Amino acid sequence: MTQSTTTRSGSGFQKIEDRSEVDGVRRVAIVSSHPIQYNAPLFRYLASDKRLKVKVYYTWSQSEAGLKYDPEFRRDIKWDIPLLEGYDFEFVKNTARKPGSDHFWGIVNPDLVPKVLAWQPDVVIVYGWNFYSHLKLIREIAGKVLLGFRGDSHLLSGRQGFKSILKRKLLRWIYSKIDFAYYVGSYNRSYFAHYGIQPEQLVFVPHAVDNKRFRHNPNNLEELAFQWKADLGIKKSETIFLYAGKFIQKKNLFFLIQSFNKLKTTDAKLIMVGSGILEKVLKKVAEGNENIIFLDFQNQSMMPVLYKMADVFVLPSRMNETWGLGINEAMASGKAIICSDQVGCAPDLVMNGGNGFVVGSEDEEGMVKAMELLVTDKTLLEQYKKASLEIISDWSIEKAYKKMADHICSVAVGQKIHN
User: Fold this and answer.
1) CATH number at residue 365
2) Which letter does DSSP use for residue 322 in this model?
3) Per-block average pLDDT, block size 10, for the chain (419 residues)?
4) Is residue 55 part of a domain?
């Protein structure tokens, strides 16, 4: 068959007409550190597209068994939903002395580059540059095969000084090697532009979760949630605020508890779900307030039930919250949202006076007012819940997949790799 194609030309692409291709199917290699519950649905959708042949290379081979130690949760984690079904994958041997996805030298794969090139991909998409092997791959295949990048960083926590100058030079060099970046939202787009990626290289692929899993779960979520609330002694009239995640410094959970403690109304509960280094201290701070409930870490199968229990999801992070996919999940479950202005998804998903509130990460008065309003005005609360469902419908795995797949197919291959 005959198709038009493109090759790299400076920062963009140059059109070449009537280049012959074997079958028109794009071979797409995806490089990621380990199976992640948010990425697996997207990989499955891509693999189901007849226009694509997809293979995922996981570089943290020690995660193949599914069990991994999460230093921020401070426990071994094994997700109880399938993460390796519906697409082709390979775990590439990781020879790092201290394997892990929490530091640069935790991912060292001597065979990664030859394995990827031997598969003869038309496009390689790298998730994250901040591992030794991922950076090596970017450096060595740039110019040989079309190179895409996926990340969700933003500039909110950027610091000035000598280190920031060095970082900017490094990132501009790294991103000069890629052909296109799949940005997740408005803050992420600004980040890529700041480091030199040109507008024609930026492709919007929304950060998304499997909305259907949270909105249309086959299990009796309402009944399970009702029973759980009853077991916890929660009254039907009470407004439930939920935080679910890691108990670590950047999540700003002392701020959340202190704000909740200042509510004038007692017709509310704050449920804190998770684990982490700050767990004991947070429980100590919350002592004496019977309206604050701590629940242990919950696996993925129980998260839809947790969201059904709640009315409002709160993410008060104060730094480095690149996106906040818990907000996607909560909105897909039909919940109002309160988040800080340091959360990456805030300008895209949380509309002040629409489906919730965005408050300053140190604005205790603003947080208290937002919470009190949602406790006292039930009509407004229900409006916000419905608005969340409407907004998140445009941020679905299906739409993310289609935007990525259509782009891959529209940017035809320039030159395949041959040994």
Assistant:
1) 3.40.50.2000
2) -
3) 36 34 82 95 98 98 80 71 95 96 96 98 97 98 96 82 82 97 98 97 97 78 87 94 96 98 94 95 95 94 93 94 97 97 97 96 97 97 98 97 96 47
4) yes
